[in-house]
């Protein structure tokens, strides 16, 4: 097994995933996003603190980190001497590394986001049908409960389930279960706020906000 190519793939994908988009966008506006809202550097907190345009930009950028990371082994296949037989495993390695980079970024003392958008980007490249199912579950849960955290947790359960039934790779199935569990774990503070009744809800129109 070409250990060097795996290590280089993991390192490159980790660094790509570790780019703290939400933190940098907020800093450009003179805000330390870690000290406001939920304190998270992800798209949801960015949207609450910075507004929808900035939040959507962070969401897309974080998803792009995950999507691009999975293609790194393909782009570097010749440079790293990756065989066709090992390419899929390198892509999975890159995807996991990108999510870990986002969740535990080395640029912010290994404190980062929750990995939902980055994971979506990873699986858009690895298992697009499963992502479509997870996004549908997220949307349904968000519309029903009006909590982004509940939608994200529901998606974290739906994605491994969808991958299990739509992809034959046992490795990808196991990795997806692990990443789903990690995503739920990263929402532990949200779960605590949900239990306490202090979690922020999404309002879809002005009338709801005024109630």
> How many helix segments?
11
- Uncertain runs are none
> How would you sum up the global shape?
globular
Q: Quickly count the domains.
A: 2
Run of helices and strands: HHHHHHHHHHH
**CA distance, first residue to last residue:** 61 Å
DSSP strand tally: 0
Q: Mind describing the biggest β-sheet?
A: none
SSE blueprint and pairings:
Elements: H1 3-17, H2 21-28, H3 43-50, H4 52-75, H5 84-103, H6 116-126, H7 128-145, H8 148-166, H9 170-186, H10 188-196, H11 206-210
Helix pairs in contact: 1-4, 1-5, 2-3, 3-4, 4-5, 4-6, 5-6, 5-9, 6-7, 7-8, 8-9
Brief overview:
Helices cover 73% and strands 0% of the residues.
Please give a structural write-up.
- With 211 residues, this protein is an all-alpha fold.
- The protein folds into 2 domains: 1-123, no CATH class; 127-206.
- Helices cover 73% and strands 0% of the residues.
- It contains 11 helices and no strands.
- It has helices at residues 3-17, 21-28, 43-50, 52-75, 84-103, 116-126, 128-145, 148-166, 170-186, 188-196, 206-210.
- Helix 5 (84-103) packs parallel to helix 9 (170-186).
- The protein is globular and about 50 Å long.
């Amino acid at each position: 097994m070409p250990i060097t190519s795996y290590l280089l793939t993991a390192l490159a994908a980790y660094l790509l995933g570790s780019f703290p988009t939400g933190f940098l966008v907020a800093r450009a506006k003179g805000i330390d996003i870690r000290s406001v809202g939920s304190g998270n550097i992800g798209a949801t907190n960015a949207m609450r603190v910075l507004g929808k345009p900035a939040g959507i930009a962070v969401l897309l950028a974080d998803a792009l980190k995950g999507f691009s990371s999975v293609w790194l082994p393909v782009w570097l296949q010749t440079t790293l001497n990756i065989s066709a037989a090992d390419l899929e495993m390198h892509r999975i390695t890159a995807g996991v590394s990108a999510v870990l980079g986002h969740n535990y970024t080395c640029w912010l003392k290994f404190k980062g986001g929750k990995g939902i958008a980055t994971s979506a980007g990873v699986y858009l490249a690895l298992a697009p049908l499963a992502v479509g199912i997870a996004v549908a579950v997220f949307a349904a849960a968000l519309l029903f409960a009006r909590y982004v955290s509940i939608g994200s947790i529901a998606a974290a359960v739906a994605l491994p389930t969808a991958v299990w039934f739509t992809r034959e790779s046992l490795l990808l199935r196991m990795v997806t279960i692990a990443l789903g569990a990690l995503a739920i774990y990263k929402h532990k503070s949200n779960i605590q706020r949900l239990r306490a009744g202090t979690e922020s809800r999404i309002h879809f129109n002005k009338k709801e906000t005024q109630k």
